[in-house]
């Protein structure tokens, strides 16, 4: 196509260009301000939301097949519809019991007779031989009674992978200088198979704190004289929060997995 010969280039007015640019800048600033204001309102509305946070969903295809203290085999978190409290422990004689084991014993008493709540102690170091007897002896010595409390073990490689990938442990179970290193936190699984953690509102009005139930860490804070401001120790505060969170999960309606 041939253009007409009398066409001339348009003249640009610098003042109009600057005015247009400033208008666009003003629109962007106003839009950004509106977005920020809306975000602040949303954040403020969520600051007081103390519903347990959803961290991860353990799907059926990722469940762990375990051997229990009664010699039966079962899938963890089956049947669905229960609330589960899970922690890890080592059977090796030289391993010191984690604080979480004592907490689990107290949970067993608090929620005794509640068929919707199950405790699980998951073994990180099952022996190559005599596992049935080892589980039975440990369960008897620690008061782990079925059906409310499972002492469970599986193939170590599968167990360690499950602990890290599905329970979202902070440490992959491993040995250092002949001792087992593993995350002893108590993990809560809700009725729909989701890992849940407590939500603690910020005293300053900021974002809430998502709390894992790491009693070893709480004990370390106590040893460092970090005060809670309540007259209770960090371990006691965390245990109260754990019980409260379990009760909240038990009160939630069951949803399909």
What secondary-structure arrangement, pairings included, does this model have?
Elements lengths: L13 H34 L5 E5 L7 E4 L4 E3 L7 E7 L9 H12 L6 E7 L7 H12 L6 E5 L2 H10 L8 E3 L2 E3 L5 E3 L4 E7 L8 E3 L3 H9 L10 H18 L6
Parallel strand pairs: 4-5, 5-6
Antiparallel strand pairs: 1-10, 2-3, 2-6, 4-9, 7-8, 9-10, 10-11
Helix pairs in contact: 5-6
Question: How would you portray this structure in words?
Answer:
The strands form two sheets. Strands 1, 2, 3, 4, 5, 6, 9, 10 and 11 form a nine-stranded mixed sheet that branches. The protein has a two-stranded antiparallel sheet with strand order 7-8. Helices cover about 35% and strands about 20% of the residues. By secondary structure, it is of the alpha+beta class. It is elongated, with a radius of gyration of 27 Å. It has a single domain, classed as Glutaredoxin (3-Layer(aba) Sandwich), CATH 3.40.30. It has helices at about 15-45, 100-110, 130-140, 155-165, 215-225, 235-250; strands at about 55, 65-70, 75, 85-90, 115-125, 150-155, 175, 180, 185-190, 195-200, 210. The chain starts with 13 loop residues before the first helix and ends in a 6-residue tail after the last helix.
